[in-house]
Amino acid sequence: MPIAEDPEPRPAEGREPGGSDPSEAGGKDPFAGLVLDEEFVRSAAVKEQSGRTRVLAARWKHTPPVDPGGRRSVNEGPAATKRRFGRRPKLQVVDPWGNPRPPKRRRLEWRTPLFIVLTIAVLLAALNVDGLRNWYADHYGESSGTAPSAATTPAPTVAPETAKPTAAPPSVDPKQPTVTRPWAGSPAETWPTGAAGIEIPAAQAVGVFDEDQVTAQLKLVKDFLVAANLDPQVIAGGKPDGALAMMDRAAQEKPSRALASPDAEHDPTSWFPRFDPREAIPVGDTVKVQGWMKFESDGDRGLLVHTDYTFVYAVRPGPEAEQRAAASPTARPSAPDAPSDGTAKPVSWTLSPADDVAGDTWTARTIVRRATDFRFYDPGKYRANPQKINISMTKSNFGNSSCDTTDGYFHPQFRQFARPHPEVTGPKVDPYDHSQELETGHGCHQTSRS
Predict the structure, then answer these.
(1) Selection from 237, 180, 235 nearest residue 368 by Cα
(2) Which residues have CB under 8 Å from 319's CB, separation 6+?
(3) Residue 364 to residues 52, 177, 269, 411, 428: CA-CA distances in angstroms?
(4) Where is the composition biased (Basic residues) (predicted)?
(5) CA distance 268 to 256
């Protein structure tokens, strides 16, 4: 087959026999001393393009590139967006070739789930507006269905009295008390609670008793008032063993006789507030108290302590409250047996649950004022223990309690079970007014407020 010939004759390499050496290399490689270093590469007149440049040049030869308008050079840095709503300007992220990158998905912040929970709460409240109103009224407002106002804000508690007041407590708007607000509509709402309302005066030496002895005797009087009038077990119908233990042996005879066999002449409520749990159940353990205590020398006898306190008890109807209110005084059931262990029986002993009584959310209050004189005899002249209670005189007045029953318990009247009371023939009195002398023997009176 034919062979293509070179366009020009090859120079003699000098290796032919008898030939010449035109290159004058003496038979050596002319590129043997060539060094392809960095300087040589940089001095080259023609440079080879990168592979990506050749690919893009071939692509753009047929389809020229279109400027999207947002492209920036890598050297120019990221572009800043406009500032909106006082926030920081966002920096636009681009790739190495100037193309904008899509924004990354932001992580879920803590505000997002909070907004979701608040939205759900608002929707639930909108679906149950009445329930929300009732909840607010029970905790912060008035009775259900009444819009809360600034008047429902609890007033600050007044200080205990140090002497007999000169006027009755100011009147307040009458409101129906409930289990959640048992002191609504009562001046006692701002009174001290429990033992905080019984303040001991500053002691000093009196007669044969020095200052420390007088201090101990005044504290004993306060402890007795607390045990006799504020003990939840006694109020719920239990036996006042704690108060009886503080009394001198001779002083225990009358109250013990009254507790064992109560009658018109021996009424244990003259010393101890007790409610029949079948008829009235205390609302919690809170009792409002206001009054004063003072002491003086009793001459040769020793020390005389005067007390005048008003106790306000909130109760709700028991399981038999409705039928007892409808029954006549002569048909009233006999009193329950007093617990022998000195504690009140639990509610479960009643015939039916208290919640079954209609209108049991309405409550009532019984107001008891007691004026009592305590005497501590001189042990050098009398056979009496100066560390025990001796009652020289006691007078009591009750507001909102039946006058025709002497079974050893208070019998409050509940508004939801109201009935006529023909036995109430006495004058109308204010049970919260302890600015006047406590008088008894005016018959069965009616109260002006409760």
Answers:
(1) 235
(2) 278, 350, 351, 352, 353, 354, 356, 357
(3) 95, 7, 18, 11, 18
(4) 81-90
(5) 8
C-alpha span between 307 and 371 (Å, rounded): 6
Burial string for 10-47 (b: 16+ CB within 10 Å, else e) reads: eeeeeeeeeeeeeeeeeeeeeeeeeeeeeeeeeeeeee
336-342: long-range contacts at Cβ-Cβ below 8 A with a sequence spacing of 24 or more?
336/237, 336/276, 336/277, 336/278, 338/237, 338/238, 338/239, 338/259, 338/408, 339/237, 339/238, 339/239, 340/239, 341/239, 342/233, 342/238, 342/239, 342/240, 342/241, 342/242
φ/ψ of residue 258, rounded to 5: -70, -35
Q: Which of 400, 431, 437 is nearest to 169 (CA)?
A: 431
Backbone dihedral angles phi then psi of residue 398, each to the nearest 5 degrees? -120, 140
Q: Please name which of 421, 423, 411 lies closest in space to residue 320, comparing C-alpha atoms.
A: 411
Do residues 306 and 377 lie in contact, with contact meaning Cβ atoms separated by under 8 Å? no
Q: Are 425 and 442 in contact (CB under 8 A)?
A: no
Render each residue's pLDDT in the chain as its tens digit; 450 residues.
Answer: 455 555 555 555 555 555 555 555 556 677 777 777 777 777 776 667 788 888 888 888 888 777 665 555 555 555 555 555 555 666 666 666 667 776 666 555 677 888 888 898 888 877 766 565 656 655 554 444 443 343 445 567 888 888 888 888 888 888 888 888 999 989 999 999 999 999 999 999 998 999 999 999 999 999 999 999 999 999 999 999 999 999 999 999 999 999 999 988 889 999 999 999 999 999 988 999 999 999 999 888 899 999 999 999 999 988 888 887 777 454 444 444 444 444 433 333 333 334 434 444 789 999 999 999 999 999 889 888 889 999 999 998 888 888 778 888 998 988 888 766 555 666 788 888 888 888 765 456 778 888
Q: In the structure, how many helices (H) and strands (E) does the chain have?
A: 9, 8
Alpha helices (runs of H) in 43-177, residue ranges in sequence order: 51-62, 111-127, 129-139
| CA angle, 259 then 260 then 261, to 5° | 95
Q: Which of 372, 253, 380, 267 is nearest to 310 (CA)?
A: 372
Residue type, 91: L
Beta-bridged to residue 369, according to DSSP, are: 310, 397
> Coil, strand, or helix at residue 130?
helix
Residue type, position 336, single letter? P
How far is Cα 295 from Cα 402, in angstroms, rounded to an integer?
Answer: 34
Buried b (16+ CB within 10 A) or exposed e, 93-109: ebeeeeeeeeeeeeeee
Phi, psi of 253 (to 5 degrees): -65, -50
